[in-house]
């Protein structure tokens, strides 16, 4: 397995203004990387950049991953500053608890546009430059791509799409010296999870998931795992690591037996979730 020494390498991260992206930036900066920090909230990305080791070594850029023009401009800005791109971490994402019946179609579609199409746009904008450096791309999927559970259909679809896209992309670029990894984090303590934890039904649902799907990881630990995955140019990155075994037996968590087991619980958990979300919407 080839490895990447991060010192002096340029790493572009989307969704770098908070959560996993910001925490990963902190670890990568400490390991000597030069960072292009992209986020819809440019001020948040700037605050992250200013708090890193050697802050003058990094660049914060406002970007909308649902816009190819915005991503092209951000990529050009990174190239102007650093001269090339060695690593891309396509991390930007959104999540909203709810069932299809209780969600607005605009919300469901936006989740897919940000989480999946945003990753595709990010790769398309940066890939020629990563090829030039024989670099590495880490696409952030989720543990949601490994199992079927109610309450996040469009999120799961978007993350499963990232997994499939990454697998196909890996085969397209391997002969060019580029490696592609897909990350599958489960629950990580970030602002997204904090928002979901405010919903009682979500919090209870997480606690009742089977291990290791119910594991909640500190964002700093997740960032260390991501950074090591980048250094090793890993094909897969799992948070927690026990998800690697789950991925190898994925049909157990997406097949008919799993459906029967989850359906029994969903008969009570789904109505509770829908009732709570409807109640919050009317406040």
TrEMBL record:
One of its GO terms (cellular component) is membrane. It comes from Mycolicibacterium fluoranthenivorans. This is SDR family NAD(P)-dependent oxidoreductase. Keywords: Oxidoreductase. The keyword Oxidoreductase applies. It comes from the Bacteria. PANTHER family: DEHYDROGENASE/REDUCTASE SDR FAMILY MEMBER 7B (PTHR44196), DEHYDROGENASE_REDUCTASE SDR FAMILY MEMBER 7B (PTHR44196:SF1). NCBIfam families: PRK05872.1 (NF004526). The keyword Flavoprotein does not apply. Residues 9-190 form the Ketoreductase domain. One of its GO terms (molecular function) is oxidoreductase activity. Pfam families: adh_short (PF00106). InterPro entries: KR_dom, NAD(P)-bd_dom_sf, Sc_DH/Rdtase_CS, SDR_fam. Belongs to the short-chain dehydrogenases/reductases (SDR) family.
